[in-house]
Amino acid sequence: MASSSSSLLDLDPIAYFAMGGFALFFGLFFLVFLWDIPLFLYLCGPVTFIPGVIALTIGILQWRRERAVLEFAEWVKSQRRVKMDLMAQRIGKTRYETERLLGKALAKGFVKGAIDRTTDEFVLEEAVKQEHFVGQCPHCGGNVDTWYFPEERVTCPYCQRAISVPANA
Question: Dmax over Cα atoms in the chain, in whole Å?
Fold first, then answer.
């Protein structure tokens, strides 16, 4: 269960826009209809305008963050399998920032996949079904241990020969 402070700042942007608009509407209501009563204006004005502006500002920031996560998720979907360090380099962020962004995209359901910690790569869920594994080279018996897609060419690091895909793979 998340703490109340973190869940309050994790609402959808539309919720912040609604709260801010609601507060500003009542602020304008007090300003227009209670203009003749300065006490109500001084009491109710700041109570509505300040939270309204803060809520709208937080809504704009949340909207920008959500757009950044969505754009990142669309980029990740085009990659199928990508090394984490290369992903961080391509988007111009640190490794830690990249993993946080990827975690947000996974949590919101914008992208589906997993980080393969043995190869330090992110793999899309759809790509896992298409991959094939080569354990040993059929030519020299060398330990290749790599995953590849059918259209990729795999060469043995020992004998430098291409490894063909079996027809039943």
Answer: 93
Residue 108, CB half-sphere, CA atoms under 13 Å: how many? 20
- How many domains are contained in the chain? 2
Among candidate residues 52, 78, 104, the one where a domain is terminated: 78
Q: Which one, of 140, 149, 156, lies nearest residue 121 by Cα?
A: 149
**Which tens digit of pLDDT belongs to each residue from 128-164?**
566 667 777 877 887 777 766 666 677 788 888 777 6
Containing domain of residue 139, as a range? Answer: 131-163
Identify whether the C-beta of residue 163 lies closer than 8 Å to the C-beta of residue 156. yes
pTM here is: 0.62
Task: Determine, yes or no, domain membership for 102.
Answer: no
Has residue 98 been placed in a domain?
no
Amino acid in position 110: F
Give me 80's structure tokens.
């199928």
